[in-house]
Amino acid sequence: MSFKTRLLQTFTRRQVSYTSIRMAGVQAVNAKRLQGKVAIVTASTEGIGFAIAKRLGQEGAHVVISSRKQVNVDKAVAELKAANISAWGQVCHVAKADDRQRLISETVSRHGGFDILVSNAAVNPVFGPILQVNEAQWDKIFDVNVKSTFFLTKECVPYLEKRKGSSVVFVSSIGGYRPFDLLGPYSVSKTTLLGLIPALAPQLYSLGIRINGIAPGIIKTKFSGALWSSESVQEQAVAGIPMRRLGEPDECAGAVAFLCSDDASYITGETVIMAGGSQARL
Ligand code: NAP
Fold first, then answer.
1. Average pLDDT for runs of 10 along the chain of length 282
2. What CATH number is given for 37-274 in this structure?
3. How many CB atoms neighbour CB 278 within 10 A?
């Protein structure tokens, strides 16, 4: 047997075992750590946000779905309800203050308050060398990815502080530690979230609220489509990942459920990296 064939067989065996480990984790949603909690998850009609909302719902939370388009909200809510998850949804473009306010007030009027905020929304309108970014693109990235994350959190605090064991999670990115080529401003916006988490943690904790983040590597969603839609590009992307595969949205969700639960009661100001072993350091 040639060296190349042996190498391929070893790699395939590893892939199978990684997949079965992942499936074991995903299927083991038996804990109801979030029973009765109410969770707002932004940008939750597909991809990572949807997977997080589903997992929080499976662990017993009532989930509030939102994104910019009503049709997407309706579809996501229907899918969650079909999976016996308590969910409803509303349009919320996170950069629109009125939308954020409506999302909060409707949640409070339906549930009397809420316990969890997962700030997941982000955009990237520009792909290219960093010096080519223009002011409008820069503003859009920082408006949605950073400013809205901060103000939504601030607007949620008066409600979160009324609930025992409340928690906030920001969705950052491995790109926040090590900027992606051609995604400079987006990466820096995610670095800002890495800084915002510990900046907020002491004051939030004085109000009884924990805040943490996740920093996913390349996860197979529409957002990262350019990195995996063709086999050759995917091969290139995977080559730099020690686990030699991309992540799936549901692999981000379990860590968020943990961070929002009492199992993480002594954890605040941290960001969990989930990037297949890729090194990350600021
Ligand atoms: P995705 O599958 O493309 O989903 C994006 C979601 O965001 C959709 O539900 C979309 O719905 C909603 N959305 C977009 N703009 C919005 C806005 N301004 N306000 C509210 N909702 C908005 O994306 P994803 O990959 O899951 O990304 C989710 C988060 O993970 C982002 O913060 C991203 O930076 C982060 N992340 C992703 C990866 C990755 O490889 N995929 C890696 C690291 C971090 P509508 O179109 O209806 O608004």
1. 44 48 54 96 99 98 98 98 98 98 98 99 96 98 98 99 98 97 96 98 98 98 92 92 97 98 98 96 88
2. 3.40.50.720
3. 17
